[in-house]
Amino acid sequence: MTEDVQKHSVHTLVFRSLKRTHDMFVSDHAKQIALDEQCHKVKMAAKLRADYAAVLHMPVLKETKDRVQMPGQTYTQPEDDPDYLVTGTHAYPSGPGVALTADTKLHRLPTEGAVHALALTLPPSQARQDASRTAASVGDIHRHAGGAEKSYPPSNMSLLEAGGTKTSSLVRKAPTMPKPQWHPPWKLFRVISGHLGWVRSIAVEPGNQWFVTGSADRTIKIWDLASGKLKLSLTGHISTVRGVAVSSRSPYLFSCGEDKQVKCWDLEYNKVIRHYHGHLSAVYDLDLHPTIDVLVTCSRDATARVWDIRTKANVHTLAGHTNTVATVRCQAAEPQIITGSHDSTIRLWDLIAGKTRATLTNHKKSVRALVLHPRQYTFASGSADNIKQWTFPDGSFIQNLPGHNAIINTLAVNSDGVLVSGADNGTIHMWDWRTGYNFQRIHAAVQPGSLDSESGIFACLFDHSESRLITAEADKTIKVYKEDDTATEESHPVNWKPEILKRKRF
Question: Helix count (H) and strand count (E) of the chain?
Answer without folding.
Answer: 6, 28
